[in-house]
Amino acid sequence: MVEAFIFDLDGVITDTAHYHYLAWEKLGNEIGIKIDEEFNETLKGISRLQSLEKILILGNKENDFTNEEKEKMANYKNSYYVSLIENITFKDVLPGILELLEKIRLNNIKIGLASASKNAVKVLNNLELTKYFNFIADAAICKNSKPAPDIFLMAAKGLNVNPINCIGIEDASAGIDAINDAKMYSVGVGDREILNKAKFVVDSTEKLKFEALIKLFEVKN
Ligand code: BG6
Ligand code: MG
């Protein structure tokens, strides 16, 4: 029996994955590192500082900055990102997500959030979706970020459910690894090749249908 649905935020509930990309691209331009969409894929789901480290390695600049300078760059990226998410509203909820949340709630199944973002609460509030979530895992106190299962396990614990009875939904390959390692049923949204370790993949959020997901989960058990 499905006890909970646990969602990633950026790229699943709203298209903030694109805003993260724009913000890293802006920082990259200023320090002379070109970030393209393909490379950006490898940044999805991972923490702010880990993303910065990857970008510096890409540009062979990993030894060029002190920790203090790196902190400043991460803050710079975040300030721009925060300015981009300032104006998002319920209209920015991706297609099918509201209907899915409504159906989960109607069926008395719990809903959790397992986002790596420290801006998650702000984004959910701007989207007016906070009321649907029974528990929001706090990335700021999560020791190991995705692909480690920690944030999904934190969400299951906060919801007081067994991870094996959870469906996790993600747009990032690192997130699918996290869900699988947490022993949850993994659902990917996006490119089938990139998300090839997911148990089930849809190419867009409007294809996330409550009844179909429940059926898939039941068949696997
Ligand atoms: C994840 C995004 O949800 O959150 C990553 O997929 C991002 O791209 C990470 O780096 C951390 O977000 P933030 O808002 O704390 O910088
Ligand atoms: Mg994501």
From TrEMBL:
Coiled coil: none annotated. Pfam families: Hydrolase. Its EC number is 5.4.2.6. Its cofactor is Mg(2+). Keywords: Carbohydrate metabolism, Isomerase, Magnesium, Metal-binding, Phosphoprotein. It catalyses: beta-D-glucose 1-phosphate = beta-D-glucose 6-phosphate. GO terms for molecular function: beta-phosphoglucomutase activity. Belongs to the HAD-like hydrolase superfamily. CbbY/CbbZ/Gph/YieH family. This is Beta-phosphoglucomutase. The gene is pgmB.
